[in-house]
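Weekly sync, protein design subgroup
Attendees: M.S., D.O., the rotation student, P.L. (late)

Item 1: inverse folding check
M.S. brought a backbone from last month's batch and wanted to see whether the design step gives back something sensible before we order anything. D.O. pointed out we never logged the input encoding, so this time it goes straight into the notes. Structure tokens as presented (502 positions):
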């Protein structure tokens, strides 16, 4: 009798252990392309701005009410560098994919400048194996896939150049790919235009969006088609008792700025520049998709166990493609925009739900490199074989208030020539610690130092008036560039790279 009771006790005990084992967390990374820090009704600045009154993103407000809003989150200055950092946890100084990728072994940023030349960089992007002009690294999707996760990529990939292995999301551990390729933008947002796919035998635009054939010829916006198709696929993924990792990567709000008809009339009625009205409709369509995903998780009772990370891949576009009247001012109070080393190019909207205190605001500096180690910590996954050195740090202790990033150094590197005629878009390297940021401009090797807490718009260069602070950061930046063997812009006349700062 006693033995039976003991056995029953042991059984119940093991059963309760099983029952108490926490379920593995699901992850929805909701990535938006080129979304500026001010392109939202949710304010990320200390005070609401006119931009927050113009744009309508109620679903992001809802997500922030359920989660944590980060006011000092950073990405790289343009697309592929951030996407590689997101998948690998590496900083741009380490992975050396320092600009956007296009065609294999071709530099899209040559520029034809008479005095300067872009140095060697990993212009083929991320590679799942050793390959020329590429960073070979293990993606978070590969690690999750190896550890029992369903891994899904939807939307814009842009991890590697056309013709290189990195262009295919499936080689980076995504079991399913919906609509991702080497393209950095869609050929068309319109289902009526088959998202750029030709049906008359003519060759496709290389940026034609793949896999969405069932929406061809229909009056549907790409954002909506991608959302519907991904949900249809997720319905079948959820049949299996597996946790999931979904990278839902919006093509919106990147150019071409084609209107989302569901939302554009409101902005036309405001009488604003028609390009800006169309842009605002792309933003609102993206937010509608976010709301659909929030509802989808609620409906499937997955909200509690799913971490949602909402972020952009760089600062908002402010020049070519945007309305002409406000050129270079679309991110105010931040200075400049996409591709710039000023805050407008680097600071991004970032919201996390499913962790931490609901409705909280966090002012710590964080960077996209941190997503990879955060997921590893939350899943307790230890890579079986050696992977790349991860520069990012887990956000979990930051969210728990157990750690601070105040003394941590953050770095950027962009020795590239595309300026689009914007004065504040220049080849640069930069470093940040606490409220202080130093930018080193490669062409004339001058420094700019800002306290972005007191001078958010980076108007007051303190490099000369605060020499100690300036030289401390310049020395640190020099150390970081030197130790990572980062390549600087090449002076054509001298046929050598410009020297490191200190
Ligand atoms: Ca982008």
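Designed sequence read out in the meeting:
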């Amino acid at each position: 009798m006693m033995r039976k009771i003991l056995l029953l006790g042991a059984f119940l005990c093991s059963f309760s252990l099983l029952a108490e084992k926490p379920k593995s967390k699901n992850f929805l990374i909701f990535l938006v392309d080129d979304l500026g820090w001010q392109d939202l009704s949710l304010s990320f600045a200390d005070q609401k701005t006119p931009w927050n009154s113009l744009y309508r993103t109620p679903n992001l407000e809802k997500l922030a009410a359920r989660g944590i809003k980060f006011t000092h989150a950073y990405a790289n200055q343009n697309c592929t560098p951030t996407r590689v950092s997101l998948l690998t946890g590496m900083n741009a100084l380490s992975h050396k994919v320092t600009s956007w990728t296009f065609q294999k072994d071709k530099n899209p940023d040559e520029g034809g400048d008479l005095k300067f030349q872009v140095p060697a960089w990993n212009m083929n992007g991320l590679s799942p194996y050793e390959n020329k002009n590429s960073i070979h690294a293990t993606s978070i999707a590969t690690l999750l896939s190896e550890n029992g996760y369903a891994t899904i990529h939807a939307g814009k990939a842009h991890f590697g150049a056309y013709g290189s292995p990195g262009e295919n999301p499936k080689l980076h551990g995504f079991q399913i790919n919906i609509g991702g390729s080497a393209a950095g933008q869609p050929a068309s947002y319109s289902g009526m235009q088959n998202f750029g796919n030709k049906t008359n035998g003519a060759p496709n635009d290389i940026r034609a969006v793949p896999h969405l054939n069932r929406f061809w010829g229909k009056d549907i916006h790409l954002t909506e088609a991608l959302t519907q198709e991904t949900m249809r696929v997720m319905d079948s993924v959820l049949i299996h008792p597996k946790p999931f990792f979904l990278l839902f990567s919006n093509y919106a709000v990147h150019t071409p700025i084609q209107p989302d008809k569901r939302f554009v009339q409101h902005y036309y009625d405001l009488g604003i520049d028609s390009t800006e009205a169309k842009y605002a409709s792309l933003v609102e369509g993206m937010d509608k998709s976010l709301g659909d995903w929030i509802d989808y998780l609620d409906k499937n009772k997955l909200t509690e166990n799913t971490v949602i990370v909402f972020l952009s891949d760089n600062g908002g576009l402010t020049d070519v493609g945007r309305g002409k009247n406000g050129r270079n001012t679309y991110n105010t109070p931040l200075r400049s925009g996409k591709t710039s080393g000023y805050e407008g190019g680097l600071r991004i909207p970032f919201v996390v739900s499913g962790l931490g205190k609901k409705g909280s605001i966090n002012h710590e500096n964080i960077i996209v490199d941190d997503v990879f180690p955060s997921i590893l910590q939350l899943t307790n996954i230890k890579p079986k074989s050696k992977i790349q050195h991860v520069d990012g740090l887990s956000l979990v202790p930051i969210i728990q208030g157990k750690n601070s990033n105040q003394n941590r150094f953050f770095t950027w590197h962009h020795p590239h020539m595309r300026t689009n005629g914007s004065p504040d878009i220049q080849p640069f390297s930069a470093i940040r610690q606490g409220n202080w940021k130093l930018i080193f401009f490669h062409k004339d090797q001058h420094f700019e130092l800002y306290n972005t807490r007191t001078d958010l718009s980076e108007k007051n260069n303190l490099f000369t008036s605060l020499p100690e602070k300036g030289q401390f950061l310049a020395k640190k930046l020099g150390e970081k560039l030197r130790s990572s063997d980062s390549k600087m812009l090449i002076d054509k006349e001298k046929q050598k790279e410009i020297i490191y700062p200190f």
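Discussion: Residues 23-405 form a domain with the Alkaline Phosphatase, subunit A fold (CATH 3.40.720.10). Residues 5-18 have pLDDT under 50 and may be disordered.
Action: P.L. to compare against the previous round before Friday.
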